[in-house]
Amino acid sequence: MALPEDHADGAPVDPLREAAETMRAVRDRCVWTQQIDHRALVPYLVEESAEVIDAVEAGSADELREELGDLLWQVLFHAEIASRDAAHPFGIDDVARGLTEKMVRRHPHVFGDAVATTPEEVLVHWNAAKAAEKRERTSVLDGVSSHMPSLALAQKLLGKAAPLGLHPVRHHSPAETPGGAGGLGRDVVSHPTSEAELGDALLGLVGLARAQGWDAERALRERLRMLTAEVRAAEQAQRDLEE
Question: What residue intervals traverse the membrane (predicted)?
Answer without folding.
Answer: none
